[in-house]
């Protein structure tokens, strides 16, 4: 394959750009240098070439920035082996993306065949190389340690990671498992599996373990029951012993108490709390006696206080007069509070009044009514506000009326004259629309002529009677297909049957021939014939015995020989008889087969005759000759059907045109009818044109008329509004006139009133203040007089002969208030003393009553008791002690009864017999402790057994371990497979690489050496191969003949060796299966000029086998290429 | 009458997938068989079925533990207390259901066996037989009781029917014989993939394993409700279980870089998601340069951000070679190498050495019979790894 031209039609930044790779003359190396600075699009061109060859990759496209992905398009002209130059295009569709020069999809196989089935990746690996790949490839092949197979493989495939791959696979396998290795996955996993297995087995509740646990539990429970019973017995005996001891001790105590009670008084037992009750009553009697004495002293004391505070007879009169004075007020406040300041305030107010009168006079002068009383001019505040509002209203209404009048005038000027009123064109429009729908006959005329042409064409090959055939009805397609199929099948069957019959006839003839031959064979005689010859011999013998003639002797001899011969043949003819039998069988089989074949053939002939008759009928129905072949039926039927359809189409088209003409005539009449009333006449010119013009102008006329009418409405509204404003103005003026009619002002015009308003407001304020001040002065004068009258009355009530009557009202009032206060204090003391005296008397009475009750209760407490000679406190103490002793005795008796009743009677009796016994309790305590210990031990054992049994069921089922076990096994299963795959991969790879070395060394080593020396001379003069135990290794030969293993070469030399290997690999591929373009992307940018020249010479070597394409952005490399490679083509990247 | 039919619970048998190496998933699913059975009981109670039918293999031979039996009894008692009786038979893994050795299961729990092959519940006769042997070569069907006239008849049988791939033959029975026995409904067990057969008015139901345990049981994860009324029984299959297995084929050849590979993997995993259920995905990858190990690593990275989807296994293989394509020298020569007897001997020796080092439970993974497949995988793995190195 060769690339002649690359078309960047819509790709990356390119549009309709191309890069040409002109063909070189024979003998000139095919090398093209593509030069362009950085970002010129070299990578773009490279990717475009790859996508042309292998199709666009899926997903977001890196070069779809100028054009959408769906619009990307690349093309090329390629020289393909066996096809020559071929222009191709590739779009970004998923399928059928490879196109020819006319954008028609073509088969991908054209390209994939020329690419020898390489994928995009393998093409890139093998046929492209850049500086990075060259450098890293050199470093990576060092890992091959000179292995010839790996190096040649790297050269062929471009894959340099073989050593790393094999190492990685081996490491993967070793990580999983290595013989005698520790810490690998298999060892770790197996160890863990064993642990899990142990834990699971230990935790698993098997049937046997369940049985054992249940047995242990039941046995422990039985043992516990036994020792528990013993413990209960020990408890009972100890309790019986304790009860016996109680009985013995309480009996002793009862005897002592009975003796002590003899010294105490008789009588019933005191009720509970009797001692406390007696003590309380004694205390109460003493306290009530003291309380009566204290009450009598208090009564005497209160009587003295009452006597010291008598009643004041004048107080009531003084109080009434003072209350009257307190009711007097001035300015809403009590007069008494301002009594001393009222007289001074009166003088000050009078001066203020004078000042206000002077200011009022000034305002009246400003209003030009100096002599008018202020009361006639001063208005109420509300009236004044109404007046101001009326003035403002008059002003506003006047301005509005003026503005409205001006608006009306302006609108009339703007409105102008009225246009002509438009006419109603609805009917005309409808008629015109109707006419338009039928005016154009072109389409129908075309349809008719096309239908006629089609009919003529379809019926060209048909007989003249085709219409009759169609009208009589055509056979159905299914019928014809069925007949066709049957005819073809029958013909094939018949041919097959004829052939079969011939074959069977030949087979039968052959079988019969064989049978005749076998029957004719003398040793094919069967036992029947031997029997027959024997019978014949015997019969002839009998005849000969009877006759004994020569003739019979001869006959006998002949029969004897015949029989002997037959028998001899029979004896030796087993195989011949078998063959005969086989021949007979074969003949029968062949005969049967021949019969079957003949029957089948005859049946088919009959069927064929019947079908032939049916075909004849169908042929006539289709207008064909009677003997026409069924294969012609379908085409004729289709032609007739097409003719029928074409005839129907033509008839329909003709009818449609006729109907359209009738509609057109009617529509024209209607249009004339609608146009005439509007002044449109066909005589004046083309009517449709006139109508069209009228309809076109209708809209603008209607708009102008509507606009003028809207203007008239607007003017009418403005007129109305102007009239309203004028009316409002008159109304406001009338209102103002009414408000000012009573005012004694010299001028009542709007302007005069508007100017007088501030003065009227001042006058209203001054007049109001003057009126308020006058009223206050009058009130002050009245208050001072009332105060003097009150003081005089108080002097008369007091009327103290020892005091001189006072003329100052304030002092008189104060004196009266002191007298009243003293009287009130005396009243209070007297009332309090009276109250306390009454209260104390009541207390005294109650104390006497309670004293009597306490004495009675105390007597009740001792009712029926002895010890009357004792004081109440001592008496009750004695009785209480008596009752305590009685209670102790009863308690002791109850205790011993209870102790006896709570234990086993027999055990009690036994233990009581032992009393007194000082060691018995300790003895029983020890026995109980022993029993308790035994019982505790058995209980623990039983609980433990029960716990073990219960926990065995309740224990977690260790699904976690089972799950881990299963997961681990799956991991190991997968790991084992991967490890085996890795090991086999390494094993197979190493063998394959040895084979590769053996297979390719002769073909590639010379190329490698030549390229390597070209690149590295004079430092290296060749390469050689060493055979070692682990395989063949490549070494370099230095000028002095010494050899250097590859892994000891410098990094630069390694890179050059890698380049040499790739060139050799290219040549190998180019020889077989064939050359493909090799793309070299600036691989020489780090080379010095000497090495770059050498590399360029090697590129020229590629060009002699195939095509080399070098991308570079270095101008000096371009010049070097021109110097080094004869006839090299240099192409600049397109703009 | 409405029944909940299930079988093949395999209580205690764990899920077998590398996906459970994920700690959260492993923790969630360690009780999967028990949790699923408890869910079945919940379902029977909430749906108020008239009976719960267990057609064998409630336990698993590999994990015999009386705790599982105690768990079973507790769960069935829960159903019984809620008014749902249980009818069951033993399967080939149910030694723990031996009533002679371990006693009865409790009230309203009917274990059918030769001594008591029939129980009547709600006017419907349930017939079933339990056999003791783990392997039964003959059909059970002739020993089943005749249908009770005038009643609906339901049969329980643990059988491999005419044979099923991946399942041992157990009480084989011709399907047509089964359907002709005269019962209205057959509740079957043993085959872990669910199916239903309706022949006229006779229905046979294989409910499938409720909780699939490995990729091979990926069609399971269901129970079946059956309604018996006039006419043919009606059935409804209902999904159940906590983990499903899914198979996903992925072609990575069109991916130009690793980011696109990650996106493709993400799309594949998201499409495998099932609401409310964990899914273990087995990935079949076609690629020129992405080996099993590399894809496994990338998939693990992607799955970190996808809920409830986990990796069961990756199988990566190169695409089939086009006819006439130029074969890579290495691949061609490796195939030549495989054909060498000496190579095969060496490979067998390595295989045996590795096989013998494995725990006995998984030795079958490296049987000699699988050598050819392993060798093919080896060639593919070398090629993929080599090309993967070239693209890095």
From TrEMBL, chain A:
UniProt cross-references to InterPro entries, sorted A to Z: P-loop_NTPase, YhaN_AAA
Coiled-coil portions: 640-667, 763-790, 921-951
Segments of this protein annotated with the region Disordered: 825-845
Segments forming domain YhaN AAA: 1-208
Keywords, in A-Z order: Coiled coil
Ranges of compositional bias, category Basic and acidic residues: 825-841
One Pfam family here: AAA_27
Protein name: YhaN AAA domain-containing protein
Automatic annotation (TrEMBL), chain B:
The Calcineurin-like phosphoesterase domain, residue ranges: 1-194
Keywords annotated in UniProt: Hydrolase
Gene3D superfamilies in the record: 3.60.21.10
SUPFAM superfamilies: Metallo-dependent phosphatases
Residues making up the signal peptide according to the UniProt record: none
Molecular function (Gene Ontology), one example: hydrolase activity
InterPro entries reported for this sequence: Calcineurin-like_PHP (IPR004843), DNA_Repair-Maintenance_Comp (IPR050535), Metallo-depent_PP-like (IPR029052), Mre11_N (IPR041796)
The name this protein goes by in its record: Calcineurin-like phosphoesterase domain-containing protein
